[in-house]
Prior knowledge:
Rossmann fold, single chain, Sulfotransferase_dom, globular, alpha/beta, binds adenosine-3'-5'-diphosphate, three-stranded antiparallel beta sheet, 48% helix, 7 strands, 334 residues, 16 helices
Amino acid sequence: MDTAEMCKANLVSKSHDAEVSWDDEFQQLVKTFPKVKSWAGNNLYFYQGFWCPALVLKSVISFQKHFQALDSDVIIATFTKCGTTWLKALTFSTLYRNNFTKDENPLFSFGPHELVRIFEYDLYLNNPFPDLENASLYQPRLLSTHLPYASLPTSIKDSNCRIISICRNPMDMFISLWHFTEKLREDKLESVSLDEAFDKFCNGIYGFGPFFDHVLGYWKASQENPNKILFLKYEALKADINSHLKKLAMFLGVPFTEDEEKQGAVEEIARNCSFDNLKELEVNKKGLHSSGIPHTDFFRKAKVGDWSNYLTPSMVERMEKLIQEKLDNSGFTF
Length: 334
Ligand code: A3P
């Protein structure tokens, strides 16, 4: 064996040892966390103040321990069912628009979740040291997470990387999550009633919950550091997508030029990323996301106020009280 081969063998054995000892450490750690079953049938661990899906707990910790953010990184950080798919499509198409011609947007061939990969469900899932250099199709890197602000890796908070977050009315978010989890339920026989799921939702027990802590975490951070964190609302984007796209481009440091605006670049991105357009693309009608979820499950109705078709008056009253209680004195409103 020559010197180079010896060094390589040494490195491989060291990284193997590191993985084995990290596995042991993780097994010990996990025993200390409270555990519950979610209404979707999967286990959740209470970790750092949020309910972490058991499937991703290990990758969340790897992400927190090892990820080194670059100042140029752009991170989409959202609560589930608040418009992540839409925000990924909008940010990808805006940030990278000079990398492709308007007919060749990779969004037409790949799902938004393939183009903007997620740390905990994808990159770190079975690999504590994923290849992050090639995790994004173009530079700067565009990646995503569902972690609450408080639990982000320190380097994301301390570097100059940018974060974009989106929130949604909790009643619509809950109904969206309800439909999503019903489709994904592992044990189809053990269906949970809407009432029971709603009760768990109000108690904050679902993946990455409580919702209000998540939303307020990013909202407060965006108030303190608006150049680093852009906080958006699903309903506001629905009401006026063009002005939000301009705001997004400005935040990303790639404002639309006068010429682009004259040529309708803003409207074109809005159209390409619209629900009706994305839902009908072949790529989103078939195939699976890396987590095994069918692409089509990310597109349902995309309506504001759909909750009124499902929630009873007493559920609405309970949620309104909860909203009032959770947001009291925060300055934030839905
Ligand atoms: P509904 O279940 O209310 O229809 P996420 O992407 O965070 O998982 O959120 C999914 C929700 O966003 C679903 O809401 C889905 O239909 C909606 N959605 C997906 N793509 C969208 C788009 N391009 N524009 C607006 N809403 C979209």
